[in-house]
Each structure stands twice: as structure tokens, then as C-alpha cells.
Amino acid sequence: MKSGRIRAVLFGARFVLFIAAFALALVAPQAAPPVHSAQPGPPAQARPASITVVMDDNYPPYIFRTQSGDLQGVLVDQWKQWSAATGVAVNLVATDWDKAQQIMAEGRADVIDTMFENEARSRVYDFTPAYAQLDVPVFYHKNLSGITNLDSLHGFTIGVKAGDACIDVLRGRGIATVMEFSSYEEVIKAARDGVVKVFCVDKPPALYYLYKYGLDDDYLFGFTLYSGEFHRAVKKGRQDLLLLVENGFDRIPRSELEAINNKWLGVPLYNSQVLSAIRYAIAGVAICLAALGGFNIVLRRRVRIKTRELSELLAALRESDERWQFALEGAGAGVWDWNVATGKVFFSDRWKSMLGFAPDELLDNFEQWRELLHPDDREAAIRTVQRYLSGESSSYVLEHRLRCKDGRYRWILAVGKVVARDASGAPLRVIGTHTDISARMDAEESLRRAFAFNEMILDHSPVGVLLYDCSGGACVMASRAAAELLGMDKAELLGHTLHSLDIWNTADPSSPARKALAGEGPQRADLRLRRAEEGKGLAECTFCRIETAGAAYLLIIAVDIDERARMYAIMAETEKMMSVGGLAAGMAHEINNPLAGILQSVQNLRRRLDAGIPANASAAAEVGCGLDAIRDYCARRQVFELLDAVREAGQKAASIVANMLEFSRKPGTGHVPVEISVLLDKALELCANDYDMKKKYDFRKVEIVREYGTDLPHVHCSPTQIEQVAMNILRNAAQALSKGSDAMGSRPPRIVLRTCVEAGMARIDIADNGPGMDEALLGKVFEPFFTTKEVGEGTGLGLSVSYFIVTSSHGGSIQANSAPGEGTTFTIRLPLGPAVQEAAA
Q: What is the average per-residue pLDDT within 283-303?
């Protein structure tokens, strides 16, 4: 009996020891595998007196530093034993792993320890057999979820130690977002400070530092990236050194290596008290075994019941987990859970508070959501839901407005997902989130309004604005004014490129557009943007190269200067007219003196031939010729008529000189009230007589139409000068009607004279229905010495003098309007007297 009890106790003790040993095998580090001798290599070199061994200094418990900076750990003690076994001194260098590899690569160390073997390193190093197997796991913060494999790491920044083999593994799977640190401890500190939320660190140092910094509850084990083995390595081809290292560790007694491992890796603690407790436990187990046999049937029945309850609970927990997992992915957005079959909808408190409602102020059904929809969004929102449920759409994303408790509407982004279907595939359950996007929609609306406002400013700007993309030359922006300057539609302009419009002449290196594109700074030039239309499209263009967001553009600003050019032309014309005025005044003074001598001589000559003067008869008798005979000779030879013609011509010349002198005086000098209609009739009479005399054209064949205004008052002017202006215009009209008869066809020649009051001024129109003039000819009619007549028929000064008589002497204006085949109209505007102007105002 006693021996049987002893056998039972011994059996129980053996069983407990087996369990303890098994548990020890699970928690204790794997013992170093037996070391195999290296393959024979080249002949051994002389044994060195010392070797330098480099390794990581931050890999607890294998090697790490004390607070004072001294090295400690498994490898420190093992290399001491190796030195004792071989007699070779060991210079142990421990540093950052990345730097350790650099020291070895530069030949400043003989052996590198704590190295994982891979294909790339095998091309550089010869390795000893592995002496420890280690897991390389991925850890992640407890607030994250779904970190289960390599693919789930995409999108996260992974903390790693610089030079670690895990970097190549991660990048080999396309994960390049890694953040490198100098040591494992720095990786754990970065995780503590929130710099990284996911990191890859070898298991032993990871556990050590997580416990050291109190992070063991904050970070979770994700998965094992790979398992590696610790090796010691030498440069490729150093078989003598490799054999020295391997043989040295083979000489160390196994018990000493185990003692070092137990020292740093730990051993299970048990003593005599534990053994005594084990004995009692074994006795208790023996007693319980019999009782357990009796309760086995009852327990099985209860297990089946609990299993069914646990299955139901797990199903409910699974549904709850899906709901709140989706809420987490929604980053704090409102959550909804819709039972499609019953129409019931779970709205989270956040969902309701987003609209200003308390948790109990909304009904949990689909109709509640429908009722909150904005009327303008309701139809589109319901259609989106139906298309998703019917399978027409693969995703449920909806932007819509929902009514808040205070009556306002907020923009909501709804994202949903079917999580349950029936046997036919019809949706049973849909869950999703609501996110308030009102701020984003307001910002987009503000941007749209700003863009529309800028477009409006651009379209209404009187300045032409063009923007070309420098890379392809496409026109990306154009104002309406720019299109009008170029004589095309805005849409047509946007279809052109910088190089397709030869106006900019980008092929010429000296063109302003080409210089601006080359980065020579802003360029300016006056260009004719409408080359087909003379006198239109002249613009002052500024070219500037601008760069934004890495793209270059050519900005062209064009200002319409047609009016400015016309003003400059008028100013030039005025300058020329002023020069002619000064010339006329000077000539008048110079001509007046000899002209007075001519008239006086003609007068004296007539007096010398007068029979009633005794001195004439006496002088004739003295020379032996009677005065009557002389007078008879002069009559027969028409000397008296010639003298009268000289006198008449001289008087006319004197009148012209007087007019020129009056013309050169200040405006208003010698002005008197004149009835314009009477003045025009007199000019017509003079022109008719003049043409009758010259017989070059018959003024009497021209139809004269008078359309005089009855309300036109007397005009303060110089009658002689205005009469001269009217005669110049009438003569030119008659000559044009005579020479242009072929172009006029059967149309009878006609001149129309009109007068009226217009804007406080007297307006006089002299219009003919002759051949007319083109635009180029019309622009030169007032230029001095310009004439279309043949040589000897005109001086080209008539209209230029008329221009200055009206503008300078009378403060009025004169202009010509004509078109080929439509005749010509000269319009004269003269200011009325001061009293008349005040009455008209």
C-alpha cells in the first residue's frame, strides 16, 4: 500500500515536472543549436593576437549598455569565454547597427555579430551557423485595428532601425513609407511620443523596451513579419578567421553557455516548498479525477447549452463590432444602421447632435430621414438609395442637405455599405456614416462666386487680357476685349495657340513675345491686331512670363490705342495747319508791299493816259505824238482792258492778302453777326460766275438744293473767311461732279446745302452726289499741298486753309464724310454768339 502511494506520488511528480519542463521550453529562449565546423577553406593563416568584433549596442538582453555606458548582456559574456578558450584578445566594439555595418564594410573590424543572413549579405560575408532564432514582429497602437498582414501596412509610416534587415523585407512588398531611427530604443521612444503608431522591432529588444517605458498596454502584437537567426560573420574568403571563431565557441563547455543564457534570459523558479505544493496538488488531482468522472455527463450537457448561448452572443457581438468598427473608420462621424426589411434605422447620438437634436427627439425609422431631406435634394437622394440597393450603383456616396432643429440646413456626406443579404442577394442591412461638410460646401460656393466675379471683371474689362500655356502654347484665358481687338469670338480665340496666331510672331527671336518667353523680362510693343482692317485693332501690348505651381504662362495685356492714334494724327495735322497759318501770315505781309506797288502803278498808268489831264497832252506833244493817237492805239490794242484786268487781279490779290492777314489774327477779330443762308447764296453766285468764265465745267448744270433751317440765328463770324470756305468746298464739289460723271452714270449732278442749330452751334452741310472718296484719300483732304488735281489745276491749300479758318479763327470744326460711289459731305460747325448760346442753354 505504501509502495503504491509512493509510486503514485512519484508518477504525479514526474507528470508535474514534465508540465513544468514543457512550460519552460515555451517561455525560455531556444538554446543555441550545435555548432558545426565550417567547410575546409584555404590554408590557415597565423593566429592573430587579437580580433575586433563589432555589433549592435542596443539589443537587450543580448547586448546593451548600463546607465554608466558599460556593455553587458549575453554576447559580452560569451565573447569573454571565447577569448579565454582561444587565448585571442577580443576588442569588442558596440555601436549603432547602421554604423556597425559601415565599420565592418570599411575593414576596421574582423567579425560582425548579431547579423541576420540574407541573399545580399551572403555575397559579402561568410556566416557561422546560427546560434539563436528570433522573431521579428510588427507592433501597432491599440487605437488602430486591422493590422494583420503585410498588405494592411500600406498607408502607414513604419518605424524601423537604420540598416535593419526588415527594411528590405518591407520594401520588397512595396511598403516604402518607413522612418529610420538609430537604435531599437529610439524606435520605441518615437512610438511613445506618437511619432509613429506602427513599428517593426526584433522581439527580445521590443519586449524589453516596451516594459521599460511602460508601453506594454499601449501597443499590441500584430503579426510576425519573419523569423531570423543570429549569426556571426567575416569578410568573404576569410575561412581561417571563420574557423577560428567557430572552433573557439566549440571549445566553450555547453554548461557555461547555458549558464550565460540562464543569467540573461532567465529560468523558472521552483524549490522544496513548490515541490511540496506539487505533491498536495497531485493528491488533490487524484481525488478530483474521480469526482470529475461523475460530473462529466452533466458538464457536457451544460457545455452544449453554454455553447449555444455563446454562439448567439458572438453573433450579437459581431454585429455590434461591425457597427462600431465602421464608426471608427468614419473618424467620429454620425453612424446609422438601417434594417431594410423592417425600415428601422439606428441613428447614433452623434448623428442626431450633428443636426442639433437630442437623442430622444428623432424617430428611428427611414421615413424620419426622408422627412429631414431638403425638398430640392429629396428626389435625387431617394434615387441614389434605390440605385444602390438595386445594384445599379456599386457604391453609396451621397451629398445632400438635412434640416436642423433650428430650421436651417446643413450639408451632409453620407457613405453606406451593405453588410447583410438574403439568400437571393437582396440587401437586408446597410450601415454607414454621416459627416458634416457644410464648411467645405460653403468654401466651394465662395470659390465659385469668386471665380464668377473674376470672370465678370475679366469680360467687362476694357483691357484685353490673354494667358497662354508656355508648355503647349494653348490659350487658357481670354477676355472679351482681347477677342474684339483680334476680331474673333472668345470661343474661337480659346481654340487658338500662341504659335498659330502669327500676330505674336514667336518664331522671330527679336519679337517681344519671344523675348518674354525667354525670360528677358516684360516686353512692350504697339501691334496691329487686325491686319485685314486698316485703322482698327491697333493695341499697346505688354508681354510678361509668369510662373505658378511649377507651370509657366505668357501673359499678354493689350490696350486699344486706335483713338489715341487718331488723336495723334489730328495733333500732327494741327501742327501742320499751324505751320501753314504762320507761313500764310508771313507770305501775306511779304506780298502786300509789292502788290500795293502794282496797284498804284496801274492806277498811275491809267491816269497818264487820261485825256483830261493837261500834263499828259503836253508830254505827248513834246515827243511829237498826239495824246488822242496814243489813246487810239491803246484802244485798238486793248491796253485799257489789260490795265483793268491787272487792276482787278491786283484787287483780288489784295483781298486774298487781307483775308490771310485776318486769318492769322486771333479768333474773334473782325467777327460780325451774319445770316448764313445769305452768305451761302453769295458764295454760290460767285462760284457760278467763276465757272462760267473758266469754261472748264458748267456750274449751271449742277442742281442746287437749299435746305436752310428757319430757326438758325445770325452767326458771329468773319463773312469773307466763311465765304471763302464755302467757295472752296463748292468748287471742289463741282470739279468732282464734272470729272466723276462716268462713275455717276445716269445720276444727275447735285449739291445740297443744309443749315440748322445743333448742340448750341450752327451746322452747315455741303453735300454732293459725286464719285466719293475711299478712307485713305479721306484722311488726307485737309493736309497742306495735298491735291488729286493735275499739275497746274490746284495748289492743295484750299481745304487746309479752310480747316484753319473754321478751327483756329472761329473755334469751330470741319469734317468730311465720304464713301466710294456715295458722294461727299463736308460738315462745318460754328459757335453761335454768347447771347444765343445762353438762350439755347
A: 73
